[in-house]
Amino acid sequence: MEASSGEQVYVIIPALNEADAIGRVVADIPAGLVREVIVVDNGSTDETAARARAAGATVLSEPQPGYGAACLKGIAHLADKATEGSIVVFLDGDYSDYPEEMPQVLAPIRAGTHDLVIGSRALGAREAGSMTIPQRFGNWLATTLIRWLYGVSFTDLGPFRAIRYPALQALGMRDRTYGWTVEMQVKAAKQGLRCTEVAVDYRRRIGTSKVSGTIKGTIMAGYKILWTIFKLL
Q1: Interval 97-118: pLDDT, tens
Q2: In the predicted structure, residue 214 carries a pLDDT above the cut 80
Q3: Helix 67-77 and helix 180-190: axis angle, to 10°?
Q4: 195-199 and 116-120 beta bridge pairing
């Protein structure tokens, strides 16, 4: 999937037991847009890794559970590849995002006006049932706190996002679990990165969510997100 322009675009997709979805996610990334698609298998017990390879992705293994742990593994893979002009896109592996919307997520960075772009599900069209009430409330609460405490307005903590590689390095990402997305946005706000959002659509995921699909996952994710917001003050 060689990028057609001089910019190198790398896609990192954390995946845990997404065998039924991952091939479709990789296949829907626009042809010629991306230099490398990196699927980080986060301890799957199904055929996630094999189907990702069959779709043309590079597959890494990160057995330590955690969304952030998988993202950090993907970033480490770029250490000897990415350049100052590279852009890193993060995308979920459950087919809830629309990979074909990647050009509009990349556009503000390619235009040179922004460093971090969040794909906002709140601004886009959401399929009925794609986000639970706790998810929607959690997003509202977290983004409200970020605005009050850090002075930057977001509407979503959506996983579909793009960031310039040098900016990503400067953030020094650390979170290995549920706080990954909010850590990135809070650190970006603190460091004065040029942040924006674009509307992205969202649909019901394939399979059951490891976070919002369980009461424990929902509570733990909510706690970690709020803890991260206040920890970084």
Answers
A1: 999 999 999 999 999 999 999 9
A2: no
A3: 60
A4: parallel
